[in-house]
Write a structure and sequence with these properties.
By secondary structure, this protein is mainly α. It has one domain (26-86). Helices cover 71% and strands 0% of the residues. The protein contains three helices and no strands. The protein is elongated and about 55 Å long. The model has no long low-confidence stretch (mean pLDDT 92).
Length: 87
């Protein structure tokens, strides 16, 4: 993946900046990790809401047990993806 230099200007309290620097939070690596994590979180939310929209459109409406089964299937899929990524 190509890397691009960008410059961000933030207006933050000095105490916060000092503490963040001391904790190693104002590094390229940490900010990249935050952005990557946030984009991943947003994609997961988009997938979840897409699935919820499809569930809502089903006819006849799902029973509570069917909804719970779908939620459990989603959670299992999420756990499996996490295990696959850890390998």
């Amino acid at each position: 993946m190509d890397r691009v230099d960008i410059t961000l200007t933030l207006n933050l309290p000095q105490d916060l900046v000092d503490e963040a620097k001391s904790a190693g939070l104002l590094t390229d690596e940490q900010i990249e990790r935050w952005l990557t994590d946030e984009l991943d979180r947003q994609r997961k939310l988009d997938r979840l809401f897409g699935k919820l929209d499809r569930l809502a459109a089903l006819e006849p409406p799902l029973t509570e047990d069917e909804i719970n089964a779908e939620i459990e299937a989603y959670r299992q899929e999420k756990r499996q993806r996490k295990l696959d990524n850890a390998e």
